[in-house]
Amino acid sequence: xxxxxxxxxxxxxxxxxxxxxxIWDLPTRLFHWMLAAAVTALAITGQVGGNALxxxxxxxxxxxxxxxxxxxxxxxxxxxxxxxxxVRWPGTVWRYLRGPHRSDDHFEVGHNPLGAFSVLAMIALxxxxxxTGLVADDEIATTGPLNRFxxxxxxxxxxxxxxxxxxxxxxxxxxxxxxxxxxxxxxxxNLVKPMISGDKLLPGAVPPSTDSAATRILAVLLLASCGAxxxxxxxxxx
Length: 238
Description:
Layout: E1 9-10, E2 17-22, H1 26-48, H2 53-76, H3 83-86, H4 90-98, H5 113-134, H6 152-163, H7 165-186, H8 192-197, E3 199-203, H9 213-235
Antiparallel strand pairs: 1-2, 2-3
Helix pairs in contact: 1-2, 2-5, 2-9, 5-6, 5-7, 6-7
């Protein structure tokens, strides 16, 4: 699918001209929905326990694969998926909060400066959950693949975090994310639709994200490499 903006269309008020712009490339969209599904499944299998922990551990490795992929894609992916497009300096965040905005700020195109904090917090907390899961020990029948490389006390402390503060902190972030989506929808901004279609109607000259066959092939290669790394880590547990 081409990432070139479509022909402009006048808004009903005639005050602005809107263009359909490719904001979220296909790899970013697939990452988003795969991560949402994996985290949901993790919450369910972790709560059920027992034999479901077999799938819980493997879903954790999937999340690790997705996170590493997203970190790499944040450097080489489509324009608005790159960290450089939404991780802002404090001065820029302050300008966003107090206004007025410059025409080249593009705060509302992808992640705005406040939304960026939510994205980074989600990645950081998921990474902490993956890391603690890798060395966890439930003292019953399940241990992480890297547990044998840490002291017993470290494994138990990691398990405590994983089942306690980490789990509830992640749940709070997910709820906050859903509330933000609802608030924006109430204000007339649909954040879900662009993450499905990849496109957004925007005024002015907004540069699109590249979403070509070449970038999608690159994404597949990166994801495969990340998956291979996750399999290697899993096998370290014997």
